Each structure stands twice: as C-alpha cells, then as structure tokens.
What does this fold into?
Amino acid sequence: MRRKSDRFKYVARSCKEILDIYGEQEDGIYYLTTTNGMKYQTFCDMTTAGGGWTLVASVHENSIYGRCTVGDRWSSQQGNNPNPPGGDGNWSNRNTFGVVESATSDDYKNPGYYDIVAKDMSVWHVPNNFPMEHWNLAAILRYHTDNSFLRLYGGNLFSLFKQFPVRYSVGSCSDRGPAVPIVYDHGDRESTRNLYGPRSRNEFDPGFISFRAINNERAAMAICSGVKPRGCNTEHYCIGGTGYFHKDQCGDFPSFDWDRLGREQGWSASKEMTESAVLLFYR
Amino acid sequence: MRRKSDRFKYVARSCKEILDIYGEQEDGIYYLTTTNGMKYQTFCDMTTAGGGWTLVASVHENSIYGRCTVGDRWSSQQGNNPNPPGGDGNWSNRNTFGVVESATSDDYKNPGYYDIVAKDMSVWHVPNNFPMEHWNLAAILRYHTDNSFLRLYGGNLFSLFKQFPVRYSVGSCSDRGPAVPIVYDHGDRESTRNLYGPRSRNEFDPGFISFRAINNERAAMAICSGVKPRGCNTEHYCIGGTGYFHKDQCGDFPSFDWDRLGREQGWSASKEMTESAVLLFYR
Amino acid sequence: MRRKSDRFKYVARSCKEILDIYGEQEDGIYYLTTTNGMKYQTFCDMTTAGGGWTLVASVHENSIYGRCTVGDRWSSQQGNNPNPPGGDGNWSNRNTFGVVESATSDDYKNPGYYDIVAKDMSVWHVPNNFPMEHWNLAAILRYHTDNSFLRLYGGNLFSLFKQFPVRYSVGSCSDRGPAVPIVYDHGDRESTRNLYGPRSRNEFDPGFISFRAINNERAAMAICSGVKPRGCNTEHYCIGGTGYFHKDQCGDFPSFDWDRLGREQGWSASKEMTESAVLLFYR
It folds into this structure.
C-alpha cells in the first residue's frame, strides 16, 4: 500500500496525464488537481483501449418511488416543478457531490466534470453498491467513443450542455443534441436493446450515446446511454433531466418503471438496468 | 502543529494500525486509507482500553419535528413511505456523508464503516455541537465491547446489517439481531436506564448493545444503544431505521419524543439523550 | 503547477498565516488545518487591502421557487416551520458543506467558519456559476471592514451568532445585532442602494454590513450585506434565516422576489443581486 500513498505528490489534471506523465498503468484511485489548484480523488481506468480514462460522474437512481426528491441530483431535488425549468442544473454548473468509492451507491460528480478538457467518453453501467474492485467485471454494459466528438463541444459535458441545455420546454422532440457512435467493451447492440423495455426498443437505434433528448411533453433528458432515439418517448430510456416531467415521472431515471419496476414489459426498462449506476469517464 | 501534518504520510487502514505500526498514542485526527487507496480523515481514540478505536459514524437527530426529511440519513430522507422498505439503506451500503469535526452537528459516515475489518465497537453519546476536543469529557455515556463479536458478522456493521437487514416488514418483533454485553467507560447500568423514558425502562435490560430491533408495527431499527430489548416498543429507545414507521414516527431517533420532547415522561427519552449524537467506533 | 502541490505541506489555520508565515502572496487555493488537525482546502484572497483573507462560506440561492427545501442550507431544508425556531442552525453550529470551487454554484461552509479567530470580514457578491479565476473581476460588489469588530464577538460569525441567535421569535424588529461600517473595494453606496428594490431603499442606509435583523413578523435574518436596516421589512434585503417566515417567504434569500423576480420594482431586489452568491471572508 505504501506506493499508493506516493500518488498524492502527482500534479495532474486527468488520468490521461497520470498515465502519460507519471507512467502509472494500474487501475485505481489517484489524486487529481484542477486548473485552480484544488485536489480531489477519483478512479482511473488505465486498461480500456489504452487507458487514461477519468471517472468524473455517476448517475444513480436512489429510489424510483421518490419523484425529484432528495437524491435526484441529476434532475431536481425540489419536486416536480416547471420553475426553475433547468431543475438543479447540475449538468451545466460547477456543483460537485459524492466521493469516488460511493459512485455506485449514490450520485457522484467531481471537479473533473467541468475542469478536464477531453476528447472522448467511456460509460460503465455497474450494478448498485458493487465495490470498486469489481466495477469492471460486474458491469452489465461498457463502451467508449473514439471519434474525439467532445472537441466539437468544448471538451466536456459541462460545455456540451451549455450548448444543449437540459431545460424544460427548450424545444421540441426533434431538437436533439449529438448522437455519437460507440465501440463496445462489454456487451453489443443486441444486449443494449434488451436492457430497455420492449416498447422502447421500437424507437431507438443501439450503438450510440446521445445527448439532450426531448420528449413529447417537452421535458429534456441529458443522456441516452447506448442508444440514439428515433421517437419521442425518451423518458423511458434516457437519464438525467429537468425539474419537470408530465405525470410526475420526475427523477434521475425519469420513467424507467412506467409498466412496473424492472418487469421488462411495455415501456419498463430491465431490472438490471434500473438497478445499475451509470459511470461517466472522460479521456 | 507541524507534527500533525506529517500524519498525512501514514498509510493505515484503521486507527489500530496507526497505533500498532506508527506508534501514535495521541487522540486526534489522522488520515486513513481504504483497501482501494482512498484517503479520508477521522478521529482516533488512542486512550480507551488500550486505544486504537476508529470513529466510523455518528447518528445525529437534526430535528425531531422533521419526519424522515432532509437530515434523517440513517432512516430515510424520502418521507415516511414503505417503498422502498429499506429507506435510504445507509446501514448496508457504501454511501458516505459528513466530515469528522461535524460528527456531533450532523450525521456522519466515513469509508471505515464498510472498509475496516474489526472485532469490537465503542459508542460515545456526545451532546450536540460539542467540539472534538471535549467529546470524551462531555459524553453522557461511553462504553465498548470486548468479546470480539464483530468477527461473527463479517468484521463491521456494513456486513452485520447485510445479515440482519434494517428493512420494513422483514420479520416480527422476536427476529432481533445480536445483543452484546458492554464494558462501561463512563456511566453504568443505572445511568443508562435513566437516559430513556420511564415506560421504556420496563422493557429493556441495560448493559448491552443490540442490533436490528423490530417493533410491534414491523418497522426495523438498527441499534439499541446500551440496552437489550425485551419488549416490542423499540421505537422509543432504538435508533436508525427503515423508511416507514407507524403514525409518522419516522426519523433517525424515531419516537424519542412520544410523550413530548425531552420530558422524560411516559415513553419519552431524556432531553440529554435526545440532544446527543451517537458516535460509533471500531477496533 | 508543481509549486501549488507543495502548498499541502503548509500547516496554517488561516490565509493570514499562509501570508505571514510562508510568505505566499498569490491568490488561490491552499490547504488549511484546524486547531484539531483537520485539513481542508479553500480560497485565499492575498490581494485586497494587504491580503490574508480566508473564504469561509458562501450563501447561494439555488431556487427562489423552493421555499426552505433542499439547498436552502442557511435557513432551513425542512420546510417553512416554526419548529425548530432556529431552522437548520448552520449560522451557529460546526456543520460544513460544499467545496471551494463550487462556492458560486451552491452553498458553502468550511471549518474556518468556526475555527479561525479573526478581526475583520470581507464580502464579495459574485454572479452564480462564475469560475474561481474570475470571481474578483466578475463581482458586482466587494467590500471589507477595517475596525476589528469581530474581536468584540468572539472572533468569527459562529460566536457572533451565539450572542445574536438567528431564531424565530427571539425578539422584535429593534433587537438587531451589530451594524459595522464598510470600506468599498468595488462599488459604492449608490451602487449598493441600486442592488435592492426601490421600496427597500427607503428603509436602509448603505455603507454597512449588519447582523441578525428581525422583521415585522419576528423572523430573524443573519446578514444584511452592504446596508444597515432602519425599517422592519428586512426579508427583502437581508439573507439567511430561521426556518419560519410569514407567507412562506422562507429561503436563503427570503423574499427577494416579492414583486416578481429580478424586476427591480417594489420590494424586489435586482436580478444581478438575486443571481449572485455572497462570499464571506475572514481576516
């Protein structure tokens, strides 16, 4: 364990710099330093596709029964309310919460989310409450992008969502943000399809990560993980959102339980999807 | 103060290791490191019964008038609701909250709660908002176990409560978890009895710490500090709990104010008990 | 960036000590250490009036539509309720929350708030979500005191508010805490007046910072920034507060939107004031 302690002396803004400058190739927790000199701890994936991936956030549904109440930090903790239209606004502000080892037990957002200037993203869907040492193996879906799409949007999600606000009534269903093709690290298009409800499968294409979806009722969602929407019932397969959803579907996983929780029937996502945290990495 | 700064270079998983490996015998704040390499600060009691006790959590009632609202992290922050039956689930997940110096001003849980593999527990009841330098002397009750009971339950409360879930409707009043005899460091059986309400005193035996009590209405509580229940009205003298309690008694100290707050009449716990935080240590 | 890393080895209780003992004159993030040895990071202003100012807190209105709900940490997160009369009590307890880089995106309180023994205060009103490197230039109002008034009240706000509790029904409108003259670093008396609503301007004098104001309905507020109240409608121009306000005006900026948000009409504060975080420094 002594070697891990020495990691504190590194001054790096991202796991990519830890890999490139200090030559560390071991997955695990490192200290990073923001542009302004604030230190924080997070997990580095030094394995996937050459390594250098920084965990910057996780989206965790604490209770599908609590509708935009405490714990729904990626939508709203203020209840289902069109004022303010951006909900808690965490997709595009500098607020942070949680700690790295709790990333599968609670929502997590560290300063890397807004501080790191990155090219690509990686996403892991890890069953709730799994310990860090098993995240990789336990994940039900893992993929990354490799076309440097973040360069077009300011280098991170903080900037991307300034351009594509996650905001109630900001536009119509056709006003979506980018949809980016993905490379699978665990899973494939078919397994991605099956993570969502049977009716949802008719209105998306697997093999993508999509940003800022808007549904029929003009609620906005931040990320559709693994899929590109064709239809407008995105509340059943996209996560994060504004502070207002029709029929009180408000929450970090807004309406994943439409036809009963985890039954994988109608519009309901699978139980394994609903009970997994979505870990977001940059490189 | 310079010497305290050097403490950062220690790599130890618990205060016991700080004592055994580095020979530190001074009570105070040290950095610990989890198995996965995450660093955090907590308080080490290096005095009681040979020292080496790590503060891992505190249970603090922020408002007896707020029923499973914000701040009731050891029961539920989602309101009094049988769904989900485990409330916020913090007794058996990897979520953490609070910082060490605020342990008597707010709920506190650090990574040691799930990371340290321990044998015994120590508990301090410290009046709310007391500063760390006075915790020991200000405590109204301090005790520890010395029979290595945690070995039977996975080495910590995280594991113990996996075996004995703190969950609404998980069983009947007789399905209690373990009751472990205690050694008093401040106080005795008589003073323990008097911390709880007159009517409560008829249904517990002092001189124990008990885990996972269940009441008449099938609500579960995590810890009965200082006592072993004989009866089933445990909501008046046990703490932490599920997300649902009969008659909206929901909260970290569920029904300590049944016959008015702090009046020490009927089922009401004493004012000093209700206004003290419960600090949990491992060794 | 390497030099910033070395800052971790400093052992100082305040930015004044960082300046005096270690000779650091650069604005930025430093590690401080409390009397009890707990380390934390915060921002030091090493420029204003000789430097040595420690950021200890920020008051940020997350949603003027959420009335003492989640995020209203300087009043109450338990709803508009006269029980408990002190709300969440954070003006006079050891609870802490937030991190330094998020000080303009969320409420912030670090251990310096209660740990540092200071003489004077400095206040910056910074538009929400501005990054740290622009706080100084972006501020719409900046001022400090220079008469060592904190010496009379225990050296910090934690002590001051023990003497002048922020508590519902603690007294009448005339039972105010101290009003201290200020020196402007950006702005002046005229610009201060214009930050508040036209009707508010008739009942305060600019050029002061005031503590513990009480309104007609006996609600208490913590700070009137830039002004000394003469009247009793302080809910329109003072911040922080108890857990109870008449007509559900409860919140960190209790009734800044009385005559519609940010319209600068009637009692409503200006939009720039309502959408700025109030950063509190000690020296």
